Amino acid sequence: xxKGLSVDxxxxxxxxxxxIYVKDVAGALQSAVTKIPHDxxxxxxxxxxxxxxxxxxxRREMVRFFPDADKAPVxxxxxxxxxxxxxxxxxxxxxELELSPRYSLQNGLAELFEY
Length: 115
Known about the structure:
By secondary structure, the chain is an alpha+beta fold. It contains 4 helices and 4 strands; from the N terminus they run ββαβαβαα.
């Protein structure tokens, strides 16, 4: 997009993913190291936002940072084995690590592109 090129999207773009900003992941890792007792054998905690975001919505959000590059996406065939929807259930990490994501998709992208 930054170079004015169109974006390739595999499938129809309505598939969803749980996008989380790297600083929220780092905070979760830090909390895991400091808050989970070391005598617990293991625990599975999903780190995410719990918010599904379509690939098309992600593209629309990114256009805000490159308004002159709003070319129609190129839709390619769906990738073999691609799942339709993926969203993290974050209830256990919210409870055990006392976490909730601090960055929305928009705020995370803004910080990324500012960097």
